[in-house]
């Protein structure tokens, strides 16, 4: 028996280098973090709610390009901690002055 699935767009631009909370690997998860490029070639760091309950969050600044995000949980493995309770680390390349920041 064949089953079918319907596409469900969660993000207006393609998300690349997606990462999730490490405790949710191989489990159902709600949030993913990645990079994207919009129609004006701005590089964006995005947080996407896959359940569609929250508006997607993004960071961008002209001339700055974020690298692959790394999610660092604040309360790793702690009972009752929210899935998105943590920080994102990304190396930011500044194209204007050839400078990289963390």
Key phrases:
single chain, 102 residues, mainly beta, 4-stranded antiparallel sheet, 3-stranded antiparallel sheet, globular
Question: How does this model look, in words?
Answer:
The chain has 102 residues and is mainly β. It has one domain (16-101). Helices cover 0% and strands 37% of the residues. The chain contains no helices and nine strands. It has a four-stranded antiparallel β-sheet, with no helix packed on it. Strands 5-8-9 form a three-stranded antiparallel β-sheet, with no helix packed on it. A two-stranded antiparallel ribbon has the order 6-7. The chain is globular. It starts with 15 loop residues before the first strand and ends with a strand.
Element layout with pairings:
Layout: E1 16-19, E2 31-37, E3 43-49, E4 57-59, E5 64-66, E6 70-73, E7 86-89, E8 92-94, E9 99-101
Antiparallel strand pairs: 1-2, 2-3, 3-4, 5-8, 6-7, 8-9
Number of helices: 0
Q: What is the H/E string?
A: EEEEEEEEE
Query: What structural category do the secondary elements indicate?
Result: mainly beta
Determine the fraction of residues in helical runs and give it as a percent range. under 10%
Radius of gyration: 16 Å
Q: Enumerate the spans where pLDDT stays under 50 for 5 or more consecutive residues.
A: none
Total of domains: 1
Main sheet specs:
4 strands, antiparallel
Strand segment count:
9
Mean pLDDT, all residues: 83
Largest beta sheet: strand ordering: 1-2-3-4
Shape: globular
* Binned strand content: 35-45%
Terminal Cα separation, in Å?
50 Å
């Amino acid at each position: 028996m064949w089953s079918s699935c319907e596409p469900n767009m969660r993000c207006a631009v393609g998300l690349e280098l997606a990462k999730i909370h490490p405790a949710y690997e191989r489990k159902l998860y709600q949030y993913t973090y990645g990079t994207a490029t919009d129609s004006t070639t701005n590089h964006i760091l995005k947080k996407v709610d896959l359940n569609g309950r929250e508006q997607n969050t993004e960071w961008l600044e002209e001339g700055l390009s974020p690298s692959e995000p790394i999610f660092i949980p604040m309360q790793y493995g702690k009972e009752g901690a929210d899935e998105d309770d943590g920080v994102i680390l990304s190396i930011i390349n500044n194209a204007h002055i050839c400078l990289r920041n963390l």
